[in-house]
Structure prediction request, 260 residues.
Amino acid sequence: MAEYRFDAAKARDRMVEEIRKLAEQQGFSKVVIGISGGKDSTVTAALCARALGKENVYGVMLPDGEQKDISDSRKVCEALGIRRRTVNIGAIHAALKAVTDQNEPTAKEGEFSVPYSRESDINVGPRLRMTTLRYIAQALGARLAGTGNLSELTVGYCTKDGDTSCDFSVLGALTSVEVVEIGLTIDELPRELVVKTPTDGLSGKSDEERLGISYQDIHKYVRLGTCGDAETDEKIRRKERANMHKRRMPVVLNPLKEDE
Prediction:
């Protein structure tokens, strides 16, 4: 197996510089970040605070009803000294289900019914959070910083038009393992939040339980071409192919283009 070395401190400093450069090039000074209390949003917030100043980072906590670990989200904002706001999307989520009549056995005459779907419902949260973050960012004249990492993108563990939507992706070139390594070099961050077991906060399971694959195996697959187990490699490869549409712009059908 090939060798791969990652200098977390060097990557951290380069990311800070890249954020500064982007802000200068595009003419923005403020960013909005959804703060979940997990490692990705925690590290993203820390990098943005170092790059733009803590006073220019707006952390938004977005519980869907009751969030048991929301204290972790507050801890991130307090540790970094960034501005914070809590917006509970629970009522919006409930209203969406109500207006689509998911509790009705039959739809009105001439209309199709909308059945309840557990997976669809789980993905509502990220989409409502992104709508809320977009609303706040535009109102503040800020940019929305994405928090998703390369491991999640590779296997499609992300929500289309949800956490994949942002103005710039801070961690999109880094695996989950590398995000943790960078986080451990940032002294102002509570260590327990950097190494916290990743969960979606909705299904009651960890990310790795839902995926059936470890982030360490995904990291090795991405950086070395194999995790060392052919069966797991193929599982990752299948997920990567099936979810590639989440990483690309929508296909534009062009009737004016001649067949090749």
